[in-house]
What does this fold into?
Amino acid sequence: MRYKIFGNTGLKLSVVGAGTWGTGGRGWGGSDKQAAIAAIRAMLDCGVNHIDTAPVYGKGLAEEYLAEVLEGARDKVIVTTKCGMNIDGPGNAVKMASRGEIIKGCEASLKRMKTDYTDILLLHWPDVNTPLDETIAAMERLREQGKTRFIGVSNFSAALTEEAMKYAGVAANQLPYSLVDRSAEAALKWARKKNIATMSYGSLGAGILSGKIREYTDFGANDVRGGFYGFFREPRFSKIMALVACMDAIADERGAPVSQVAINWAAQKNFIDTALIGVRTVEHACENCGAADWELTAEEINYLDNESTKIYDD
It folds into this structure.
């Protein structure tokens, strides 16, 4: 496994991190608790030392599963969870980042994970109905109380991150980044210049860059792949399949799975500290972690850079 220094935190994170959105099951076709726990443990065995979760992943299920992973291993794992999205109300993901919701949400997360602290606490999404200074002040209070070591943001633009920095130290920003979604590239590069740590999520494009999906599938609006992500709908789907064919050539030359090509493309960027990968089986965990055993050449990265831009021609 390869590791990078995580911004100005002093932490050293594996270039591949375990993402647990799919672990919770909601929107991903259900959840198999034992398989999910085994998959995350397999990533840890491969040298991964960072797990990212959130209360809304399965309405708390992902954090509950994580408690079993952390038992007896808490000091060996860097844990990120999030706040500011209520899971106690009627919706699955309601943006509520008031002081009370931040405090209550963090304490509930710690209880589900059976730990006294999280290493990194991120504001999951901006909440336009709550002043940002109120939200950040509440998160900073949690840091002062020792309930988190660092605070940060997720899905924040550079401008909004800069505003948050007026109220407390922002250690990290988590943003979507992959060959099929480079929309946050400017914000990630800005964060690097400010020495703010960066995490990319969706590094396999919700699985479309894994090489396992080759035919059009209608996942439906209730599935994350049919709703949150637009990769599985035309005309983008066909364009992405053309990109995957280009990745096939590199994978064949390297004797590696296509998924490892996608992971290395993201993880090797100098403005990405750790690329989050969702896994639900031990096989996928070991396969994806294998990306850390080799690296793309600069020529291969440039080639994929150019090919990925064709997805956005329309």
